[in-house]
Amino acid sequence: MAYFEPTSGERRGVVVLGVALLLGFAILLFVQLSAPQASGDAEKPGEAGTSLRSKRSSQLYYACPERKVETFDFDPNEADSTTLFRLGFAPFQVRGIYRYRSMGGRYHEPADVQRIPGMTNELWERLAGHIRIHRRYQYVTPPPRSRDRLVRSDSPVEAVSRANRDTLRFPEKLRPGQTVSLNEADTTALKKIPGVGSYYAARIVRYREALGGYASAEQLLEIEGIPDDIGQWVSVDTAHLRRIDVNHATKSQLVRHPYLRVYRAGDIWQWRHNYGPLRSADDLRRLPNFTDDDVQRLLPYLLFR
């Protein structure tokens, strides 16, 4: 048994190890006993349940810097994503603007920007006066025709010519019971409507071209600022409306119509891709971005073939 008896060095090692363990245990016990007292001094009554970790995490979640919004002139047809973000547009709005432009859509006048999904009154009122549409994106307004352009200044009919110019500058207005054909009248005829001058006459013609013709006089009220009683001064002939073949039109052709734009045109395109041709207005009502009012407005302009 002497073979297994520890040497003097081994005994000293065991003693040193035991002392070290006791010392470590004493230090740990001292730390645990002193910790509650320190935390009690740091915490106020009623806040014992709030730990330092929870306070720190709340700071991480809520102490986020706000995005700086700027206001300056811009063209929505050419502004890049960085510019749009600086102006205060949300990420989903920027994606929608890019998607609309990639499909051939263009903003022809400042009022078109109001149709951007998610547009708020605060954002519109701040940016409305800073929208600058480049001339190449604007609709063409035909110059007014002058009946006395070729009359010489020394002509004996100079007085008559001057009277004609005054008549053109201040056209005679329609009388009660008189109307103009909404789908055939040019700007000169439209300016005879009470309350309509050169500006609104040009807008009526531009909107007629975008729609493919007016299906009803009520559509004029979709033009901002148009007189409310304009319907009594016009007649509507729907025989020559320009219609869209929903099953064969390209995506860019669908997008250009004011009642379709990007999202509804995308719905039609996706339905055709997944299920084939649309057969009636009932198929349109199944699409996510179409309401019954949308379908009723569109029906005069659609062909299902």
Q: Describe it for me?
A:
The chain is an all-alpha fold and 305 residues long. Among the domains are: 81-137, no CATH class; 169-235, DNA polymerase, domain 1 (Orthogonal Bundle), CATH 1.10.150; 244-303, AF1531-like domain (DNA polymerase, domain 1), CATH 1.10.150.280. It contains 12 helices and 4 strands, in the order ααααααβααββααααβ. The chain has helices spanning 8-42, 52-62, 81-87, 91-102, 121-127, 158-169, 187-190, 198-211, 251-255, 261-275, 281-285, 292-298, and strands spanning 180-181, 234-235, 244-245, 302-303. The longest helix has 35 residues, at 8-42. The radius of gyration is 38 Å and the shape is elongated. The model is unreliable at 38-43 and 146-168 (pLDDT under 50).
As laid out across the biggest beta sheet, the strand order is: 1-2
- Helicity level, as a percent range? 40-55%
Order of helices and strands: HHHHHHEHHEEHHHHE
**In the CATH scheme, what's the topology name of the domain at 169-235?**
DNA polymerase, domain 1
Query: How much strand?
Result: under 5%
The average pLDDT score comes to: 81
N-to-C CA distance: 108 Å
Short structural description:
The chain is mostly helical and about 300 residues long.
Main traits of this protein?
two-stranded parallel ribbon; 4 strands; 305 residues; DNA polymerase, domain 1; 3% strand; two-stranded parallel sheet; 12 helices; mainly alpha
Secondary-structure map:
Layout: H1 8-42, H2 52-62, H3 81-87, H4 91-102, H5 121-127, H6 158-169, E1 180-181, H7 187-190, H8 198-211, E2 234-235, E3 244-245, H9 251-255, H10 261-275, H11 281-285, H12 292-298, E4 302-303
Parallel strand pairs: 1-2, 3-4
